[in-house]
Amino acid sequence: MARTRLDRVTDLNAIxxxxxxxxxxxxxxxxxxxxxxxxxTELVERFxxxxxxxxxxxxxxxxxxxxxxITGEAHRIGTEATVYYAGKAFLCVEVARWMAEEGLxxxxxxxxxxxxxxxxxxxxxxxxFHGNNKSxxxxxxxxxxxxxxxxxxxxxxxxxxxxxxxxxxVRQRVRLRVNSGVHASTHDFLATSHEDQKFGQPLDAAxxxxxxxxxxxxxxxxxxxxxxxxxxxATEGFRESARRLLSIYPTLAxxxxxxxxxxxxxxxxxxxxxxxxxxxxxxxxxxxxxxADIVAETSAEFAIPVPKLAFEPGRAVIGQAGVxxxxxxxxxxxxxxxSDAAARPEDLGFAERxxxxxxxxxxxxxxxxxxxxxxxxxxxxxxxDADPALVRVVGKHCEAGDIVVQRDxxxxxxxxxxxxAVPATGAYCWSLSSNYNYLPRPAVxxxxxxxxxxxxxxxxxxxxxxxxxx
Length: 470
Description:
The protein has helices at 40-47, 56-76, 93-101, 111-119, 136-145, 155-168, 206-214, 236-247, 249-256, 284-301, 315-318, 338-343, 367-371, 461-465, and strands at 25-26, 33-35, 38-39, 51-55, 81-86, 105-108, 127-129, 149-152, 172-179, 201-202, 219-225, 262-264, 308-311, 322-335, 352-358, 378-379, 388-394, 403-411, 419-423, 444-448, 451-456. By secondary structure, the protein is α/β, with parallel strands linked by helices.
Protein backbone atom coordinates (compact mmCIF):
# COMPACT_ATOMS: atom_id res chain seq x y z
CA MET A 1 0.00 0.00 0.00
CA ALA A 2 1.29 3.47 -0.86
CA ARG A 3 2.40 5.47 2.15
CA THR A 4 0.24 8.53 2.89
CA ARG A 5 0.28 11.31 5.44
CA LEU A 6 -2.29 9.40 7.52
CA ASP A 7 0.17 6.52 7.92
CA ARG A 8 2.26 8.84 10.06
CA VAL A 9 -0.51 9.83 12.49
CA THR A 10 0.51 8.27 15.81
CA ASP A 11 -1.34 10.44 18.33
CA LEU A 12 -4.85 11.58 17.48
CA ASN A 13 -4.78 14.01 20.41
CA ALA A 14 -1.52 15.72 19.46
CA ILE A 15 -1.46 19.46 18.75
CA UNK A 16 1.37 20.03 16.26
CA UNK A 17 3.01 23.46 16.87
CA UNK A 18 4.24 23.45 13.26
CA UNK A 19 0.64 23.68 12.02
CA UNK A 20 -1.25 25.24 14.92
CA UNK A 21 -0.07 28.58 16.37
CA UNK A 22 3.25 27.60 17.98
CA UNK A 23 2.18 28.24 21.59
CA UNK A 24 -1.07 26.24 21.27
CA UNK A 25 -1.33 23.27 23.64
CA UNK A 26 -3.73 21.13 25.62
CA UNK A 27 -4.38 22.16 29.20
CA UNK A 28 -2.69 20.06 31.84
CA UNK A 29 -5.91 19.36 33.73
CA UNK A 30 -8.76 20.00 31.29
CA UNK A 31 -6.87 18.51 28.30
CA UNK A 32 -8.67 20.98 26.04
CA UNK A 33 -6.94 22.96 23.32
CA UNK A 34 -5.77 26.38 24.46
CA UNK A 35 -5.01 29.10 21.91
CA UNK A 36 -3.37 32.22 23.27
CA UNK A 37 -3.95 30.80 26.75
CA UNK A 38 -7.73 30.44 26.33
CA UNK A 39 -9.70 27.19 26.08
CA UNK A 40 -11.30 26.58 22.71
CA THR A 41 -14.60 25.71 24.39
CA GLU A 42 -14.59 29.03 26.25
CA LEU A 43 -14.10 30.87 22.96
CA VAL A 44 -17.02 29.01 21.40
CA GLU A 45 -19.21 29.69 24.44
CA ARG A 46 -18.40 33.42 24.38
CA PHE A 47 -18.30 34.16 20.65
CA UNK A 48 -20.23 31.37 18.94
CA UNK A 49 -19.45 28.62 16.45
CA UNK A 50 -18.04 28.44 13.88
CA UNK A 51 -15.36 30.90 14.90
CA UNK A 52 -12.17 32.24 13.38
CA UNK A 53 -9.44 32.60 16.01
CA UNK A 54 -6.17 34.47 15.37
CA UNK A 55 -3.23 34.24 17.76
CA UNK A 56 -1.94 37.82 17.80
CA UNK A 57 1.44 36.94 19.29
CA UNK A 58 2.00 34.27 16.62
CA UNK A 59 1.10 36.65 13.80
CA UNK A 60 3.36 39.37 15.12
CA UNK A 61 6.26 37.00 15.74
CA UNK A 62 6.03 35.59 12.23
CA UNK A 63 5.89 39.08 10.72
CA UNK A 64 9.07 40.03 12.61
CA UNK A 65 10.81 36.79 11.67
CA UNK A 66 10.17 37.28 7.95
CA UNK A 67 11.05 40.98 8.00
CA UNK A 68 14.29 40.41 9.89
CA UNK A 69 15.32 37.53 7.64
CA ILE A 70 14.74 39.44 4.41
CA THR A 71 16.15 42.80 5.50
CA GLY A 72 19.15 41.11 7.09
CA GLU A 73 20.04 39.25 3.92
CA ALA A 74 19.51 42.40 1.86
CA HIS A 75 21.97 44.26 4.05
CA ARG A 76 24.45 41.42 3.62
CA ILE A 77 24.55 41.99 -0.14
CA GLY A 78 24.71 45.77 0.21
CA THR A 79 21.12 46.82 -0.37
CA GLU A 80 17.81 47.37 1.41
CA ALA A 81 14.52 45.50 1.39
CA THR A 82 10.89 46.32 2.09
CA VAL A 83 8.52 43.59 3.23
CA TYR A 84 4.88 44.23 2.33
CA TYR A 85 2.13 42.30 4.06
CA ALA A 86 -0.18 40.99 1.31
CA GLY A 87 -3.50 42.12 2.70
CA LYS A 88 -5.57 39.87 0.45
CA ALA A 89 -4.61 36.93 2.72
CA PHE A 90 -6.55 38.46 5.60
CA LEU A 91 -7.04 42.14 6.25
CA CYS A 92 -8.93 44.03 8.91
CA VAL A 93 -8.08 47.26 10.68
CA GLU A 94 -6.50 45.52 13.67
CA VAL A 95 -4.33 43.17 11.60
CA ALA A 96 -3.16 46.06 9.40
CA ARG A 97 -2.15 47.85 12.60
CA TRP A 98 -0.21 44.81 13.83
CA MET A 99 1.70 44.56 10.57
CA ALA A 100 2.60 48.25 10.52
CA GLU A 101 3.76 48.09 14.13
CA GLU A 102 6.01 45.13 13.25
CA GLY A 103 7.68 47.14 10.49
CA LEU A 104 5.88 45.77 7.45
CA UNK A 105 4.45 47.85 4.64
CA UNK A 106 0.97 46.92 3.35
CA UNK A 107 0.00 45.59 -0.08
CA UNK A 108 -3.62 46.26 -1.09
CA UNK A 109 -5.58 45.22 -4.18
CA UNK A 110 -8.77 47.29 -4.04
CA UNK A 111 -10.19 50.55 -2.84
CA UNK A 112 -11.73 48.70 0.09
CA UNK A 113 -8.41 47.24 1.21
CA UNK A 114 -6.84 50.68 0.81
CA UNK A 115 -9.48 52.16 3.11
CA UNK A 116 -8.80 49.46 5.71
CA UNK A 117 -5.07 50.24 5.69
CA UNK A 118 -5.62 53.99 5.92
CA UNK A 119 -8.17 53.55 8.71
CA UNK A 120 -5.54 51.55 10.62
CA UNK A 121 -3.22 54.55 10.42
CA UNK A 122 -0.76 52.96 7.99
CA UNK A 123 1.57 55.53 6.43
CA UNK A 124 0.30 55.88 2.82
CA UNK A 125 3.91 56.00 1.62
CA UNK A 126 4.23 52.40 2.86
CA UNK A 127 1.29 51.09 0.86
CA UNK A 128 1.53 49.34 -2.51
CA PHE A 129 -1.60 49.22 -4.70
CA HIS A 130 -2.10 46.13 -6.88
CA GLY A 131 -4.85 44.95 -9.20
CA ASN A 132 -5.43 44.15 -12.86
CA ASN A 133 -8.53 46.36 -13.11
CA LYS A 134 -8.10 49.33 -10.81
CA SER A 135 -10.94 51.75 -11.53
CA UNK A 136 -10.22 55.37 -12.36
CA UNK A 137 -11.85 56.33 -9.06
CA UNK A 138 -9.61 53.90 -7.13
CA UNK A 139 -6.51 55.25 -8.87
CA UNK A 140 -7.47 58.84 -8.10
CA UNK A 141 -8.10 57.94 -4.45
CA UNK A 142 -4.76 56.17 -4.18
CA UNK A 143 -2.86 59.09 -5.72
CA UNK A 144 -4.69 61.62 -3.54
CA UNK A 145 -3.96 59.56 -0.42
CA UNK A 146 -0.23 59.53 -1.21
CA UNK A 147 0.11 55.80 -1.80
CA UNK A 148 3.79 54.98 -2.06
CA UNK A 149 3.71 52.75 -5.12
CA UNK A 150 1.11 51.80 -7.68
CA UNK A 151 1.78 48.59 -9.59
CA UNK A 152 0.85 49.01 -13.25
CA UNK A 153 -0.74 45.90 -14.72
CA UNK A 154 -1.53 47.07 -18.26
CA UNK A 155 -0.74 49.75 -20.81
CA UNK A 156 -4.12 51.36 -20.14
CA UNK A 157 -3.16 51.89 -16.50
CA UNK A 158 -0.07 53.85 -17.49
CA UNK A 159 -2.24 56.58 -18.97
CA UNK A 160 -4.78 56.47 -16.14
CA UNK A 161 -2.23 56.81 -13.37
CA UNK A 162 -0.31 59.49 -15.28
CA UNK A 163 -3.47 61.58 -15.68
CA UNK A 164 -4.43 61.19 -12.04
CA UNK A 165 -0.94 62.13 -10.83
CA UNK A 166 -0.77 65.11 -13.18
CA UNK A 167 -4.16 66.37 -12.01
CA UNK A 168 -3.04 66.04 -8.38
CA UNK A 169 0.25 67.79 -9.08
CA VAL A 170 2.39 64.89 -7.84
CA ARG A 171 4.94 62.50 -9.26
CA GLN A 172 3.64 59.01 -8.59
CA ARG A 173 6.02 56.11 -8.01
CA VAL A 174 5.07 53.09 -10.14
CA ARG A 175 6.26 49.55 -10.76
CA LEU A 176 5.46 47.52 -13.87
CA ARG A 177 4.10 44.02 -13.31
CA VAL A 178 5.55 41.48 -15.71
CA ASN A 179 5.37 37.73 -16.16
CA SER A 180 8.76 36.09 -16.02
CA GLY A 181 7.42 32.89 -17.61
CA VAL A 182 8.45 30.86 -14.55
CA HIS A 183 5.69 28.44 -13.59
CA ALA A 184 5.34 27.90 -9.86
CA SER A 185 4.91 24.33 -8.64
CA THR A 186 1.39 24.83 -7.30
CA HIS A 187 -2.27 24.68 -8.31
CA ASP A 188 -2.92 26.22 -11.74
CA PHE A 189 -5.11 28.92 -10.21
CA LEU A 190 -2.30 29.88 -7.83
CA ALA A 191 0.45 30.09 -10.47
CA THR A 192 0.48 33.71 -11.60
CA SER A 193 3.55 34.21 -13.78
CA HIS A 194 2.82 32.04 -16.80
CA GLU A 195 2.03 33.96 -19.94
CA ASP A 196 -1.63 33.13 -20.59
CA GLN A 197 -3.36 34.62 -17.55
CA LYS A 198 -4.85 37.90 -16.40
CA PHE A 199 -2.00 39.43 -14.44
CA GLY A 200 0.89 41.46 -15.79
CA GLN A 201 2.63 41.87 -19.13
CA PRO A 202 5.04 39.64 -21.04
CA LEU A 203 8.62 40.19 -19.98
CA ASP A 204 9.71 41.04 -23.53
CA ALA A 205 7.18 43.90 -23.57
CA ALA A 206 8.81 45.57 -20.56
CA UNK A 207 11.18 47.90 -22.51
CA UNK A 208 8.37 49.37 -24.63
CA UNK A 209 6.08 49.78 -21.61
CA UNK A 210 8.90 51.29 -19.55
CA UNK A 211 9.46 53.81 -22.34
CA UNK A 212 5.77 54.72 -22.18
CA UNK A 213 6.02 55.23 -18.43
CA UNK A 214 9.19 57.30 -18.73
CA UNK A 215 7.48 59.58 -21.24
CA UNK A 216 5.23 60.93 -18.45
CA UNK A 217 6.70 63.53 -16.12
CA UNK A 218 4.04 62.65 -13.56
CA UNK A 219 5.32 59.06 -13.20
CA UNK A 220 8.47 57.79 -11.51
CA UNK A 221 9.42 54.35 -12.82
CA UNK A 222 11.12 52.48 -9.95
CA UNK A 223 11.32 48.94 -11.32
CA UNK A 224 9.64 45.66 -12.15
CA UNK A 225 7.31 43.48 -10.15
CA UNK A 226 6.69 39.77 -10.61
CA UNK A 227 4.70 37.26 -8.56
CA UNK A 228 5.19 33.66 -9.66
CA UNK A 229 2.44 32.09 -7.55
CA UNK A 230 1.37 31.00 -4.10
CA UNK A 231 1.98 28.15 -1.66
CA UNK A 232 5.48 27.56 -3.05
CA UNK A 233 8.01 25.46 -1.14
CA ALA A 234 10.99 25.33 -3.51
CA THR A 235 13.21 28.38 -4.08
CA GLU A 236 14.26 27.45 -7.62
CA GLY A 237 11.32 29.27 -9.19
CA PHE A 238 12.12 32.49 -7.32
CA ARG A 239 15.78 32.21 -8.32
CA GLU A 240 15.01 31.76 -12.02
CA SER A 241 12.42 34.52 -12.01
CA ALA A 242 14.86 36.95 -10.39
CA ARG A 243 17.54 36.07 -12.94
CA ARG A 244 15.18 36.68 -15.89
CA LEU A 245 13.95 39.99 -14.52
CA LEU A 246 17.41 41.34 -13.80
CA SER A 247 18.62 40.29 -17.24
CA ILE A 248 16.64 43.14 -18.80
CA TYR A 249 17.61 45.77 -16.23
CA PRO A 250 20.60 46.95 -18.36
CA THR A 251 18.19 47.64 -21.23
CA LEU A 252 15.79 49.47 -18.93
CA ALA A 253 18.67 51.48 -17.44
CA UNK A 254 19.62 52.76 -20.89
CA UNK A 255 16.05 53.89 -21.48
CA UNK A 256 15.86 55.57 -18.07
CA UNK A 257 19.28 57.19 -18.29
CA UNK A 258 20.37 55.54 -15.07
CA UNK A 259 20.06 52.41 -12.92
CA UNK A 260 16.62 50.99 -12.15
CA UNK A 261 16.46 51.29 -8.36
CA UNK A 262 14.10 48.52 -7.24
CA UNK A 263 12.99 44.95 -7.86
CA UNK A 264 9.85 43.40 -6.33
CA UNK A 265 9.86 39.60 -6.39
CA UNK A 266 6.35 39.18 -4.93
CA UNK A 267 5.48 36.59 -2.31
CA UNK A 268 3.96 33.13 -2.34
CA UNK A 269 6.02 31.41 0.36
CA UNK A 270 4.22 28.24 1.42
CA UNK A 271 3.09 27.08 4.84
CA UNK A 272 2.18 23.70 6.33
CA UNK A 273 -1.51 22.83 6.37
CA UNK A 274 -0.87 19.33 7.73
CA UNK A 275 1.75 17.80 10.00
CA UNK A 276 3.29 15.80 7.17
CA UNK A 277 3.55 18.90 5.00
CA UNK A 278 5.48 20.65 7.78
CA UNK A 279 8.47 18.46 6.98
CA UNK A 280 8.80 20.09 3.54
CA UNK A 281 8.41 23.80 4.37
CA UNK A 282 11.74 25.62 3.97
CA UNK A 283 12.97 28.01 6.63
CA UNK A 284 12.32 31.62 5.65
CA UNK A 285 15.94 32.43 6.49
CA UNK A 286 17.08 29.93 3.87
CA UNK A 287 14.69 31.43 1.31
CA UNK A 288 15.94 34.94 2.08
CA UNK A 289 19.58 33.88 1.79
CA UNK A 290 19.03 32.09 -1.53
CA UNK A 291 17.17 35.03 -3.03
CA ALA A 292 19.74 37.54 -1.85
CA ASP A 293 22.53 35.43 -3.35
CA ILE A 294 20.89 35.16 -6.77
CA VAL A 295 20.16 38.90 -6.87
CA ALA A 296 23.76 39.72 -5.98
CA GLU A 297 25.17 37.20 -8.45
CA THR A 298 22.93 38.26 -11.32
CA SER A 299 23.50 41.95 -10.68
CA ALA A 300 27.24 41.34 -10.89
CA GLU A 301 26.80 39.26 -14.05
CA PHE A 302 24.99 42.11 -15.81
CA ALA A 303 27.18 44.83 -14.29
CA ILE A 304 24.31 46.68 -12.62
CA PRO A 305 23.98 48.00 -9.07
CA VAL A 306 22.17 45.66 -6.72
CA PRO A 307 18.61 47.06 -6.61
CA LYS A 308 16.55 47.62 -3.52
CA LEU A 309 14.33 44.58 -2.98
CA ALA A 310 10.69 44.15 -2.07
CA PHE A 311 8.65 41.08 -1.14
CA GLU A 312 4.95 40.54 -0.46
CA PRO A 313 4.27 37.57 1.86
CA GLY A 314 0.72 37.15 3.13
CA ARG A 315 -0.11 33.50 3.84
CA ALA A 316 3.38 32.99 5.29
CA VAL A 317 2.70 35.73 7.84
CA ILE A 318 -0.87 35.09 8.95
CA GLY A 319 -1.73 31.53 7.87
CA GLN A 320 -0.44 29.52 10.82
CA ALA A 321 -1.70 32.09 13.31
CA GLY A 322 -5.32 31.22 12.48
CA VAL A 323 -7.52 28.35 13.68
CA UNK A 324 -11.18 27.75 12.87
CA UNK A 325 -13.37 26.17 15.55
CA UNK A 326 -16.47 24.16 14.62
CA UNK A 327 -19.14 22.28 16.54
CA UNK A 328 -20.15 18.82 15.37
CA UNK A 329 -23.83 18.56 14.39
CA UNK A 330 -24.24 15.03 13.04
CA UNK A 331 -22.15 11.99 12.20
CA UNK A 332 -22.83 9.03 9.96
CA UNK A 333 -20.89 6.03 8.79
CA UNK A 334 -20.67 5.24 5.08
CA UNK A 335 -19.31 1.85 3.98
CA UNK A 336 -16.47 1.77 1.49
CA UNK A 337 -16.69 -1.08 -0.97
CA UNK A 338 -13.75 -3.38 -1.35
CA SER A 339 -12.97 -2.18 -4.86
CA ASP A 340 -13.14 1.46 -3.78
CA ALA A 341 -10.84 0.85 -0.85
CA ALA A 342 -8.33 -0.92 -3.07
CA ALA A 343 -8.35 1.99 -5.51
CA ARG A 344 -7.67 4.51 -2.75
CA PRO A 345 -4.66 3.42 -0.72
CA GLU A 346 -4.76 6.83 1.01
CA ASP A 347 -7.84 5.56 2.88
CA LEU A 348 -5.61 2.99 4.61
CA GLY A 349 -7.92 0.07 3.98
CA PHE A 350 -10.71 1.30 6.25
CA ALA A 351 -14.01 -0.45 5.57
CA GLU A 352 -16.03 2.71 6.23
CA ARG A 353 -15.77 6.47 6.37
CA UNK A 354 -17.21 8.54 9.19
CA UNK A 355 -18.81 11.70 7.85
CA UNK A 356 -18.63 14.44 10.48
CA UNK A 357 -20.88 17.40 9.71
CA UNK A 358 -20.03 20.76 11.30
CA UNK A 359 -21.83 24.07 11.57
CA UNK A 360 -19.80 25.85 8.89
CA UNK A 361 -18.29 24.70 5.62
CA UNK A 362 -17.41 26.14 2.25
CA UNK A 363 -18.85 29.52 3.24
CA UNK A 364 -16.08 30.02 5.81
CA UNK A 365 -13.37 28.04 4.01
CA UNK A 366 -13.70 27.89 0.24
CA UNK A 367 -10.17 26.62 -0.39
CA UNK A 368 -10.90 22.86 -0.41
CA UNK A 369 -13.67 23.40 -2.99
CA UNK A 370 -11.62 25.89 -5.06
CA UNK A 371 -8.19 24.28 -5.00
CA UNK A 372 -8.58 20.86 -3.45
CA UNK A 373 -6.68 22.28 -0.46
CA UNK A 374 -5.71 19.78 2.22
CA UNK A 375 -6.32 20.46 5.92
CA UNK A 376 -6.16 18.44 9.10
CA UNK A 377 -8.56 18.37 12.04
CA UNK A 378 -8.33 17.72 15.77
CA UNK A 379 -10.90 16.99 18.47
CA UNK A 380 -10.20 19.74 21.01
CA UNK A 381 -12.85 19.80 23.74
CA UNK A 382 -11.50 16.54 25.19
CA UNK A 383 -8.97 13.79 24.62
CA UNK A 384 -9.93 10.28 23.63
CA ASP A 385 -8.29 6.87 23.49
CA ALA A 386 -10.92 5.47 21.12
CA ASP A 387 -9.75 3.63 18.02
CA PRO A 388 -9.13 5.90 15.02
CA ALA A 389 -11.83 6.46 12.43
CA LEU A 390 -11.29 7.60 8.86
CA VAL A 391 -13.25 10.85 8.71
CA ARG A 392 -14.36 13.42 6.20
CA VAL A 393 -15.34 16.71 7.81
CA VAL A 394 -18.11 18.35 5.81
CA GLY A 395 -20.17 21.50 6.08
CA LYS A 396 -23.89 22.14 6.16
CA HIS A 397 -24.29 23.61 2.67
CA CYS A 398 -26.40 22.15 -0.09
CA GLU A 399 -23.35 21.05 -2.09
CA ALA A 400 -21.71 17.65 -2.38
CA GLY A 401 -18.38 19.45 -2.63
CA ASP A 402 -18.87 21.21 0.70
CA ILE A 403 -15.84 19.62 2.33
CA VAL A 404 -13.70 21.13 5.05
CA VAL A 405 -11.23 18.26 5.53
CA GLN A 406 -11.13 15.63 2.79
CA ARG A 407 -9.64 12.88 4.92
CA ASP A 408 -8.07 12.59 8.32
CA UNK A 409 -8.20 10.40 11.39
CA UNK A 410 -10.20 11.28 14.50
CA UNK A 411 -11.09 9.23 17.56
CA UNK A 412 -13.99 7.01 16.56
CA UNK A 413 -16.14 8.24 19.43
CA UNK A 414 -16.55 11.77 18.03
CA UNK A 415 -20.18 12.80 18.62
CA UNK A 416 -22.55 15.75 18.15
CA UNK A 417 -21.56 18.63 20.40
CA UNK A 418 -17.83 17.98 20.16
CA UNK A 419 -15.63 20.92 19.18
CA UNK A 420 -13.19 20.47 16.31
CA ALA A 421 -10.27 22.69 15.32
CA VAL A 422 -8.92 23.10 11.80
CA PRO A 423 -5.52 24.83 11.95
CA ALA A 424 -3.68 27.05 9.46
CA THR A 425 -6.82 28.95 8.46
CA GLY A 426 -5.49 32.46 8.98
CA ALA A 427 -5.10 33.12 5.26
CA TYR A 428 -7.74 33.09 2.52
CA CYS A 429 -10.56 31.76 4.69
CA TRP A 430 -12.24 34.86 6.06
CA SER A 431 -11.11 36.72 2.92
CA LEU A 432 -12.94 34.27 0.63
CA SER A 433 -15.93 33.74 2.91
CA SER A 434 -19.49 34.07 1.65
CA ASN A 435 -23.13 33.92 2.73
CA TYR A 436 -23.99 30.86 0.66
CA ASN A 437 -27.31 29.39 1.85
CA TYR A 438 -27.67 32.56 3.94
CA LEU A 439 -25.12 31.44 6.52
CA PRO A 440 -23.80 34.44 8.46
CA ARG A 441 -20.05 34.86 8.32
CA PRO A 442 -18.37 34.03 11.65
CA ALA A 443 -16.66 36.53 13.88
CA VAL A 444 -12.89 36.85 14.00
CA UNK A 445 -11.44 36.83 17.51
CA UNK A 446 -7.89 37.75 18.44
CA UNK A 447 -6.35 35.99 21.44
CA UNK A 448 -3.26 36.92 23.39
CA UNK A 449 -2.00 36.23 26.92
CA UNK A 450 -5.27 34.74 28.10
CA UNK A 451 -7.46 37.52 26.72
CA UNK A 452 -9.78 37.51 23.70
CA UNK A 453 -11.45 40.29 21.75
CA UNK A 454 -13.46 40.53 18.56
CA UNK A 455 -11.56 42.17 15.70
CA UNK A 456 -14.22 41.47 13.03
CA UNK A 457 -17.85 41.25 14.09
CA UNK A 458 -19.81 38.20 13.02
CA UNK A 459 -23.07 38.52 11.12
CA UNK A 460 -26.60 37.50 12.02
CA UNK A 461 -29.35 36.02 9.89
CA UNK A 462 -31.43 39.13 10.56
CA UNK A 463 -28.69 41.34 9.12
CA UNK A 464 -28.57 39.24 5.97
CA UNK A 465 -32.34 39.39 5.49
CA UNK A 466 -32.30 43.14 6.10
CA UNK A 467 -30.40 43.61 2.85
CA UNK A 468 -33.46 42.54 0.88
CA UNK A 469 -35.57 45.39 -0.44
CA UNK A 470 -39.33 44.72 -0.39
